[in-house]
Structure formats: structure tokens, C-alpha cells
TrEMBL record:
Belongs to the peptidase M67A family. CSN6 subfamily. Residues 176-295 form the EIF3F/CSN6-like C-terminal domain. The keyword Nucleus applies. Pfam families: JAB, MitMem_reg. One of its GO terms (molecular function) is metallopeptidase activity. This is COP9 signalosome complex subunit 6. It comes from Rotaria magnacalcarata.
Amino acid sequence: MTTTAGSTTTTGKGSVTLSLHPLVIMNIAEHHTRVRVQTSRVNPVYGALLGKIKGRHVELCNTFEFKLTNDSPSTTTTSTVTIDMDFLTKKLELIRQVHPDLDFTGWYTVESKDWNPSTMSLFYNQLSSLNESPLLLRLDPIGVSNELPIHVYETIVDLGTKIDFIEISYTLITEEAERIGIDHVARYSVTDGTSDTSIVSDQIAIQFNAIRLLYQRMLMLLEYVRAVKEGQLERNDDLLREIGSLCQRLPIINTDDNNNQMFREDFDIQQSDVALLALLACCTQEISTLNDYLNKFQAVHDKQQHSSGPGGSFGYGSGGRRMVRGTGYFPASFV
């Protein structure tokens, strides 16, 4: 079904209740911040929402990014944005193998308060095959409010002509792991009171200096190997063996070509080994479950044999009827 661009946004009581995990907000904010730093400008970002659907209650638990098939991913208009549905379908299948209780519940975007709801109808037309009424979560990156800049909308098609985005309320719920993560982020996001930099900035600066020092030392070793190869310096076998051992521990990645054949082969082998271990773990679990079932079945079967009388199990005769005192009998279904 294809709807027109005549979409409207209203505020009212939706037909579903919603629970929101902080992990969803953190993932969306990280996605927006990463794109903002990489492109040096504000670009809309889009992704899928994963959650648990129980009747008319939806619990949003996690997200992942969309893969767009347009030629210019950094475009600021959504009229040319197309979602790679093959990638999305395969991604959902892999997620269901690990988390079978998670379903596709909608999509998210990062837009200001001046967003145009009509452009979101294009996403609805592409995603309605996965969920007939997907939710839309909008994060306002520049909104100033005492509340979270999160707006969630329920999509309802009005007579097949336009989409109504009805804003619904939500409640925040957290798990123990999320509370620990949020507390860790909060501790590293505050300033010390004497400067404008946060603790996380200091931590990133320390890691950056360590990586820069490692890069400089690697360049020094590279120059040494080149000098030994050209005969400018004397060969030191002990030092060359240590350099060779260090190279063996580094990932085989060519920075000029990310499709390095040697790296891809090693990566595919490692990925296959991990998948095989996961499959073996699943098989072991299934065998253990089957073994428990057989033990319980054997125990029940032995108990029935000990409890059976001369007339058959539990006093039933060979004709499927229960014997009683006297000459009368009743069918087993009536007893």
C-alpha cells in the first residue's frame, strides 16, 4: 500500500502503551553525534527500533542503523532516501536468532521541531511490510526543555490516503545493567568545577596521546627495517624477531584497501569458528534438554508399571474399560 504525502501530526491518546529503555536514547544520541562529528554538519539519521510486543503494550529495547541505498547519504532531504530492505531483512533475521523475543517495532529519526511529517510517509511505505503500524521515535537535538527531547508517534493510515502521526506518552524503564551503564556515563560526563572540559574528554585525550605515541614508535620500527633492508644499518636478528612477533599480533589490515584479501580470509575463518562454537552450544543445550525429557519420561513410565494391577495399568482392562466391583463396568472416559 502506498500512501500520499498528506500526513498530519496530532497529539492525543494512542491505542498502545509504551515503555522506553535508556539504551534506545543513548544509541540514537550516539548515532547523531557520530554523524555530526564525521560530516561537520547536521544531517538526519535513521534507524530501526527493536522491542517486545505484548498485546497493545510495546517495550522499546534496542536499535540499529538503517543502510541507505541513495547515492548521497549526507543529503538533508528524505525524499531521495531509500532503505536497503534486503540488508534490513537479513539484519532482523540475525537478531531474532540471538534474541527471539525482539521484533521490529518502528524506526527513529533525529529532527528538530520543524520536521515535516509528510516526508516520513516514504519510510512508512517501505516499512509497512514489516509492521502494519510501526512507531516513529523522533529525537529533537536542539530542543530546550526540562523533559527528554523524545517524541514517539503512532502511525495510523486514514482511509488509505494519508498517515496520521499521533503522539503518545511513554514511561522509562531500566534494567540493572542499564542503570550501571548510565551511572558510569553520568560520572564521566561531569566537569571537575575548575575547567570547562569533562572527565570523558580527559580520558579520550589520554587514549589519543597513547595511540599517537604507538604510531610514532611503529614508524620508527618501519624506518629501521627499511634501513636494514637497504644495508644502511647493521642487522640485529634479536630485534628483528621481536618486530616480527609484534607484527604477528597486529591485525592484517591494509589502510589503503579495506578489502585486503588476507585479512578477509582470516576474518571469515574466525567468524566461521565463532558461528560453529555457537551452533555447538545450541546443540549441546538441545541434547541436554532431550536427555532431561527422556529421564522424566522413564521415571513416569516406571511408576506406571509399578502402579498397574493385574488388569492393566491403573486397573484398566485390555478393552479400555475400568473394572469395578460387581458385574457392571463403565467406559474409561467416564471414570
